[in-house]
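User: Could you go from structure to sequence for me? I need the amino acid at each position, not a summary. Structure tokens:
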């Protein structure tokens, strides 16, 4: 029993660590733009929906002997056409994520050096891109332990910032009129909550530790609920303090409200986390192109380096809109793919008995329609 508990919390930590990323930084700004109740609704709503998605994906992984990424599962069960759509979504998703880190990295770099050397944000993005490109080319990496340590300290510091913000906050800020639609937070919240990439790794962990794969069910539930709670506390605490001064990256608007040293420490550690995440994401993209698309390393590296700055150069420079589009469009496509593959398994393998979750066939259609209709509205209102 003690071993089972340890594995359970290891799995929860893996899922929580995958979910909590750059996406949560924009949530206080989302509260400013759309209001507290819409953001709370989408956090709770997607907390439930994404939990189900994680369990459906776990069932797909368990039911399929071969190891795939999501496009591979789509191809195996739905055919070549849907697989090409899933591949396109995957590629745009990983480069979109890299561009998010690039834009955030440039923004935090600008804020950090502003007292000594004020520079435009566009130049800060280019400087950040050049420095991280050198790291990618030189293979100068950051160990997973250092990355985990930075992430842990950063999240802890954000918890402190949230706690201090609550003491400096006021409920009057929640009466600030919203400037955007109820659907504005849709893509932002959905993007921030999805952690499907961790599901296959958690299942490998369970098998390695000789635990039943059904343990993924409580892991998926707890591992998704924790980020929902963390996001809600962070978003509402920051907004209660900064109100109409809430900035897109959440921290700059706290100047003069919380101690200055806390603002600087949070900016610095968040910047370090973005650096390590950008590098890790870039390496993942290079390895994906090499192993999954049989691309030579030099071309894979050049593509990983060049495409984000090209996208920035053509005018994609608003990370809030970018996250909203990624969540509304690409995460919606991936969610629909998971639902359709799960449905196909039940049809193609009638003898298979679900080991994680048994969702009735009739429930899959309205579940898919929620993502389809919501994704369209979320996309329209995130622009």
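Assistant: Here is the amino acid at each position, in order:
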């Amino acid at each position: 029993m003690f071993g089972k508990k340890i594995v359970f919390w290891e799995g929860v930590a893996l899922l929580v660590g995958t979910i909590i990323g750059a996406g949560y930084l924009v949530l206080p700004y989302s509260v400013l733009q759309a209001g507290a109740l819409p953001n709370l609704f989408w956090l709770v709503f997607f907390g439930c929906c994404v939990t189900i998605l994680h369990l459906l994906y776990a069932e797909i992984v368990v039911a399929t002997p071969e190891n795939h990424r999501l496009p591979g599962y789509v191809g195996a069960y739905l055919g070549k056409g849907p697989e090409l759509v899933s591949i396109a979504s995957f590629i745009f998703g990983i480069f979109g994520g890299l561009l998010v880190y690039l834009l955030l990295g440039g923004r935090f770099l600008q804020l950090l050096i502003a007292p000594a050397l004020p520079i435009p944000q566009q130049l800060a993005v280019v400087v950040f891109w050049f420095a991280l490109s050198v790291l990618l080319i030189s293979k100068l990496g950051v160990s997973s332990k250092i990355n985990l340590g930075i992430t842990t300290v950063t999240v802890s510091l954000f918890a402190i910032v949230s706690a201090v913000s609550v003491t400096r906050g006021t409920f009057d800020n929640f009466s600030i009129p919203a400037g955007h639609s109820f659907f504005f937070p849709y893509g932002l919240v959905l993007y921030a909550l999805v952690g499907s990439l961790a599901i296959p790794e958690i299942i490998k962990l369970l098998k390695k530790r000789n635990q039943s794969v059904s343990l993924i069910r409580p892991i998926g539930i707890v591992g998704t609920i924790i980020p929902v709670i963390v996001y809600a506390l962070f978003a509402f605490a920051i907004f209660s303090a900064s109100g109409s001064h809430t900035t897109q990256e959440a921290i700059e608007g706290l100047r003069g409200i919380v101690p200055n040293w806390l603002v600087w420490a949070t900016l610095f550690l968040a910047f370090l986390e973005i650096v390590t995440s950008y590098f890790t994401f870039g390496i993942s993209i290079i390895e994906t192109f090499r192993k999954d698309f049989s691309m030579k390393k030099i071309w894979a590296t050049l593509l990983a380096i060049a495409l984000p700055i090209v996208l920035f150069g053509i005018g994609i420079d608003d990370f809030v809109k970018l996250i909203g589009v990624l969540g509304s469009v690409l995460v919606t496509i991936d969610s629909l793919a998971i639902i359709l593959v799960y449905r196909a398994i039940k049809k193609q393998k009638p003898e298979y008995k679900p080991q994680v979750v048994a969702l009735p066939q009739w429930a899959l259609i309205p579940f898919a329609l929620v993502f389809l209709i919501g994704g369209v509205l979320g996309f329209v209102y995130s622009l």
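One structural detail worth keeping in mind: The chain has a mean pLDDT of 89.
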